[in-house]
Amino acid sequence: MVGDGMGTSQRDAIRLASVGLSGELAMDTLPEVGRVHTNSADEETFVTDSAAAATSMATGVKTYNGAIGMDVDRQPVTTALEIAEELGKSTGLVTTSQVTDATPAAFGSHVLDRDEQSAIAAQFLRSSHPEVILGGGEDHWYPEGSPGRYPDNPDEDPSEESAGTEGNLVEEAMDQGYEYVWDLPGLQAAQGDRILGLFANEEMFQYGDDVEETYNPSVPLTEMTRKALSVLDGNQSGNGFFLMVEEEGIDAFSHVNNGALTIGSGIEFDRSVALAKEFAEQDGNTLLVTVGDHQTGGMVIEPLGGADPTNPDSPAQEEPFDVAGSEQQFRIDWTTNGHTGDDVPLTAMGPGAEMLTGVYENTRIFDVMVDVMRSGTERAFDLQSHRGGRGENTEESLAAFAHSLELGVTTLELDTHLTEDGKVIVWHDDTIQPEKCADTGPATYVDPEFPYVGDRVAELSLAQIRMLDCGYAQLPGYPEQVVSQGNTIAELRDVYALADRYGADTVRFNVETKVEEGLAGGPGSAALTEAVVSEVRAAGKAGRTTIQSFDWSTLNLVAGMAPELVLVALAGTPEDLGVGQPGAAPELGGIDIDDFGGSVPRAAASLGYDVVSPIATSVTPAMITEAHGLGLSVIPWTVNEAADMNALIDLGVDGIITDYPTRLRTVMAERGLPLPPAYAG
């Protein structure tokens, strides 16, 4: 819950005016307290705007002022709302501003400039898909000259008029199944599980030049919050929900130095927090966070006494304001009409709230929200189908991945390489092996590189790769493998598209960035890593994708460019890791495993990874205990015999990577473990 522009003084003024010197606001009764740095990464000023601040909270990445869901390099960054959707949760955006204004926009869209409000609305419908969208800003959903329920050029602000650039988005929303409402009775009567409510041309209040300033939304924030909680809590998935609620009036009226309306909108915000707190207390499993994105106006609370002779240039000094329940009064002194660089207070309750105590950057809010969401959806034993289940089907073929989806696995495990022309393909080997692939012909009439078998993947184009038949024979050592005749090596995007066609909205993807022998940490690894992250984001699968590698330097790259992704440290034998050998192993990103007593969990935890995936023969009870104590999951590879599967489950591993998913599913069923859902094509 975001009180836009709400710093410490705004919270204090709201408290004094509404509950007095000894009373407490609902937001101040939340037990965990933090102080949040708000600076942006803008080149011109570190004092943030709402777009950069909201993007930091929504994505965990600092960025430039005006950015919506973009990093400083103008690249989209996955948001907490999008991760929630990928985890099967329902999501909602509620605000008294335009629903396409900076704060809600940063959670559900990606544009270079916050003013692209019609593009933001279109992305809500075409990309992020929040189930509940409630607020103002109807003008950006209808084309110019085509007003909706609210007429163009109203008396209270003649400048307001429809200005959409993406067609009639209200009609598009209704075609998608949204129930459209435009007033309080309609909202209260709405029965759908997807609701779009637009209750004003622009903001749901009036402020600014040549406008009478008023705060009287036709649909109060409390009513929008109440409805959003009801709809989202009633979703059928059972996976919970993510909701962002914003009161924009605190910021707007601080910009124009109107203390009375700043307080009035703040009181309505606190009432909405009270509703959310009541829900969270009854539910018992909900994280509630209340925070400002920045401080606006440089508000200071002072005693009465007329103009301050020490500050004659102050933009505004307002008095008197009554302290509730007493005969005392106070004055508000404003020092600016803009934002300040002040920290803002945060209060929280519920699972994970203790991680929000102390002093920290606003990016931590994203980290904690995502950790809590994931902790609530990843409790089941992780059945990972290695290379799509190569013991049962041609490895890393779309047929293998389809078989795994139809069988029912938690995770599709797969490998990636980068072709000469920069395409991310799903294949294990860095050279084309004759026992797996056969040439069918050249990619062009005359191709000096033909034949391709035996060549390095990195030196072949996608067109050349696709001329290979990589399902022409059964792989030696896998007598049960069903051969996919004529199999063509797929791209990573093809696997994501396959899962979408199956409607596999809970299956996960464990994507390995492969490294050629002796080239760990080199430019090829970096290029592959960057390309994989780009593909994951383009597919909208960051919430269900983990990145694993034996080359830990690539995991470090991912941590910097995509902090939303879960990182998996693959580990081989002690000899592979350099245990007992002098110097740092290149594969471990330059660290010496002996500095951590040869412990894979300790080394992985020191680098901020989330999962350790050791060779199965190295797993011991002590390793599992140590990993779990450090907050790491343990998922060993590659386990193919039922006896070994049972032994590892007895030890307490969190999942298993196997060539035989049917075999592991049988073991899980015999042990009474919950089975992942199967999907029909």
TrEMBL record:
<dbReference type="InterPro" id="IPR017850">
    <property type="entry name" value="Alkaline_phosphatase_core_sf"/>
</dbReference>
<feature type="binding site">
    <location>
        <position position="101"/>
    </location>
    <ligand>
        <name>Mg(2+)</name>
    </ligand>
</feature>
<dbReference type="GO" id="GO:0008081">
    <property type="term" value="F:phosphoric diester hydrolase activity"/>
</dbReference>
<keyword id="KW-0862">Zinc</keyword>
<dbReference type="GO" id="GO:0046872">
    <property type="term" value="F:metal ion binding"/>
</dbReference>
<feature type="binding site">
    <location>
        <position position="339"/>
    </location>
    <ligand>
        <name>Zn(2+)</name>
    </ligand>
</feature>
<dbReference type="Pfam" id="PF03009">
    <property type="entry name" value="GDPD"/>
</dbReference>
<protein>
    <submittedName>
        <fullName>Alkaline phosphatase</fullName>
        <ecNumber>3.1.3.1</ecNumber>
    </submittedName>
</protein>
<keyword id="KW-0460">Magnesium</keyword>
<keyword id="KW-0378">Hydrolase</keyword>
<dbReference type="GO" id="GO:0006629">
    <property type="term" value="P:lipid metabolic process"/>
</dbReference>
<feature type="binding site">
    <location>
        <position position="4"/>
    </location>
    <ligand>
        <name>Mg(2+)</name>
    </ligand>
</feature>
<feature type="binding site">
    <location>
        <position position="293"/>
    </location>
    <ligand>
        <name>Zn(2+)</name>
    </ligand>
</feature>
<dbReference type="InterPro" id="IPR018299">
    <property type="entry name" value="Alkaline_phosphatase_AS"/>
</dbReference>
<dbReference type="InterPro" id="IPR030395">
    <property type="entry name" value="GP_PDE_dom"/>
</dbReference>
<dbReference type="InterPro" id="IPR017946">
    <property type="entry name" value="PLC-like_Pdiesterase_TIM-brl"/>
</dbReference>
<keyword id="KW-0597">Phosphoprotein</keyword>
<dbReference type="InterPro" id="IPR001952">
    <property type="entry name" value="Alkaline_phosphatase"/>
</dbReference>
<keyword id="KW-0479">Metal-binding</keyword>
<feature type="active site" description="Phosphoserine intermediate">
    <location>
        <position position="50"/>
    </location>
</feature>
<dbReference type="Pfam" id="PF00245">
    <property type="entry name" value="Alk_phosphatase"/>
</dbReference>
<feature type="binding site">
    <location>
        <position position="4"/>
    </location>
    <ligand>
        <name>Zn(2+)</name>
    </ligand>
</feature>
<dbReference type="GO" id="GO:0004035">
    <property type="term" value="F:alkaline phosphatase activity"/>
</dbReference>
<feature type="binding site">
    <location>
        <position position="255"/>
    </location>
    <ligand>
        <name>Zn(2+)</name>
    </ligand>
</feature>
<comment type="similarity">
    <text>Belongs to the alkaline phosphatase family.</text>
</comment>
<feature type="binding site">
    <location>
        <position position="251"/>
    </location>
    <ligand>
        <name>Zn(2+)</name>
    </ligand>
</feature>
<feature type="binding site">
    <location>
        <position position="246"/>
    </location>
    <ligand>
        <name>Mg(2+)</name>
    </ligand>
</feature>
<feature type="region of interest" description="Disordered">
    <location>
        <begin position="135"/>
        <end position="165"/>
    </location>
</feature>
<feature type="binding site">
    <location>
        <position position="103"/>
    </location>
    <ligand>
        <name>Mg(2+)</name>
    </ligand>
</feature>
<feature type="domain" description="GP-PDE">
    <location>
        <begin position="381"/>
        <end position="668"/>
    </location>
</feature>
<feature type="binding site">
    <location>
        <position position="294"/>
    </location>
    <ligand>
        <name>Zn(2+)</name>
    </ligand>
</feature>
